[in-house]
Design brief:
16 strands, Pdz3 Domain, binds iron/sulfur cluster, 6-stranded antiparallel beta sheet, 472 residues, 4-stranded parallel beta sheet
């Protein structure tokens, strides 16, 4: 029996758990004779039978038993957050290893937890998952999951993940597919390491395993739902780490030109649903416009991985500008701070909005001094970099204290420190009890106080931004 079980943090009054005498502070040990491992495992076990046998432990150590007629539904308990599994690999381009020193501890946690891959779309190399864990994924039908393949060639993969035992990623992928698990996959492309023939081999071998095949060895099994490629991200903090060539604008341009037509071919062969995906950064680094809507999966399946974010923003903007709501920006004088890669697109959009609504919104690209100038994404901007950019902008306006009536920062740059890990903020989280903060611990309130101007998060689109600006 699993001696520890899972801590119950709350019990819904009148629920089956309440009627059984379960109280907050008890530990749920077993369901139908099986040890309860974590939240996901609880959900699986509780759904298996109409009548469920429970074993729980009260705080003084005594064991209690109960039986509930739950019809496969939950019994009305909230369980404690699962302990995050820590990664023991050393990937050559691991972002955590390239973080500047001095940030809060939770930002250095290398989590590689297949449960988070299922729940939140975090990518896992599967390097920390043994066969027993893969079998659990199959049994509990944790599908789809998100897998960082990086290279199917064993020798190259060993070089990338820094672990001799983790070259054969296809063995693990195949075990999961055989068990009916689908997956979204990604490759972080580093020039000279896993591009060229390595990338082509990876594409070919994953395409052979694509989802929804009706014939051949993979018919009726799990499948690869999508494969994205993302250019490697390097910071200015790589002391003591292997040398890696970055993706400059020329390389990104050549990559986008070479693979854009191939993406379209795969889409056609996949019945119209995009399967091969190119991250936005290929286009922004190359100075190219992002492709149209058809280039991206109908479900925006790898949006969180930076695939299609710009196109989706533009799509939303197009609709928004036609709505009367856009006039809510009339007369507003707002500075939007963002990463260098998104600033040109945002400025074009704001120019259209200003023409339509009579507003004065403009975007400024913020240089990332904390991570280095090669880091141009909005999500990694620190409070001090945003503050500096706003001060430079005010100086350029002759230190006029009323040069703007609000400053907007990217929501993606805010996190909520939950203790062991950080979480990205979700809409409404700005009003949560734990104040969201930037990577360098500065809060929105502190930035606003230092600048003497209201500072609001951008939200995901112009409608959300308008809502966030309304109180100011
Ligand atoms: S698996 Fe992820 S967290 Fe672990 S070293 Fe590789 S990139 Fe870093």
């Amino acid at each position: 029996m699993n001696k520890n079980g899972v801590l119950i943090i709350s019990v819904e009054p009148g629920s089956l758990a309440d009627q059984t005498g379960i109280q907050p502070g008890d530990r749920l040990l077993e369901i139908n004779g099986e040890p309860v491992l974590d939240q996901l495992n609880y959900q699986f076990l509780i759904s298996q039978r109409d009548v469920t046998k429970l074993v729980f432990q009260i705080p003084d150590g005594h064991i209690r038993k109960g039986k509930v007629e739950n019809g496969g539904d939950g019994i009305g308990v909230d369980l404690a957050q699962d302990k995050v599994k820590v990664c023991r690999q050393n990937c050559v381009f691991c972002f955590i290893l390239q973080m500047p020193k001095g940030f809060r501890k939770s930002l250095y946690l290398k989590d590689e937890d297949i449960r988070l891959s299922f729940l939140y779309g975090h990518f896992s190399t599967l390097s920390s998952s043994d066969d027993a864990e893969l079998d659990r994924v199959i049994r509990e039908r944790l599908s789809p999951i998100h897998v960082s393949v990086h290279a199917t060639d064993p020798e190259v993969r060993v070089k990338i993940v820094g672990n001799k035992k983790e070259g054969d990623i296809l063995r693990k992928v195949d075990r999961l597919l055989e068990g009916g698990v689908d997956m979204h996959t990604q490759v972080v492309v580093a020039p000279g390491l896993n591009d060229d023939w390595v990338w082509e081999k990876t594409v070919r071998e994953l395409w052979e395993r694509r989802a929804y095949q009706t014939e051949g060895p993979w018919a009726g099994k799990g499948g690869i739902l999508s494969l994205s490629c993302v250019p490697v991200g390097l910071t200015a903090h790589r002391e003591g780490l292997p040398e890696i060539t970055g993706v400059g604008s020329g390389y990104a341009h050549a990559w986008a030109q070479r693979w854009t037509p191939v993406v379209r071919k795969f889409t056609k062969a996949n019945g119209g649903e995009p399967w091969l995906l190119l991250a936005d950064e290929w286009f922004t680094r190359a100075g190219l416009d992002v492709p149209g809507r058809n280039f991206y999966s109908s479900s925006w399946s790898q949006l969180e991985n930076g695939v299609g974010m710009i196109r989706r923003f533009l799509e939303h903007t197009r609709g928004f500008l036609k709505r009367p709501m856009a006039m809510g920006f009339a007369g507003r004088k707002v500075l939007l701070l963002t990463g260098a890669s998104f600033a040109p697109v945002l400025n074009d959009t704001l120019a259209q909005l200003n023409r339509r609504a009579g507003s004065h919104l403009r975007a400024a690209a913020v240089q990332n001094f904390s991570f280095g100038e090669t880091v141009t994404v909005a999500g990694l901007l620190c409070g001090k970099d945003l503050k500096y950019a706003a001060e430079v902008d005010r100086k350029a306006h002759n230190n006029d204290p009323h040069w703007v009536d609000a400053i907007v920062i990217p929501s993606a740059a805010l996190r909520i420190d939950t203790g062991p890990t950080d979480q990205y903020t979700v809409p409404g989280a700005e009003r949560s009890q734990v104040p969201p903060m930037f990577l360098d611990d500065m809060t929105l309130a502190e930035l606003s106080r230092d600048l003497g101007v209201p500072v609001v998060p951008s939200g995901e689109n112009l409608a959300q931004l308008l809502g966030n600006l309304q109180p100011y």
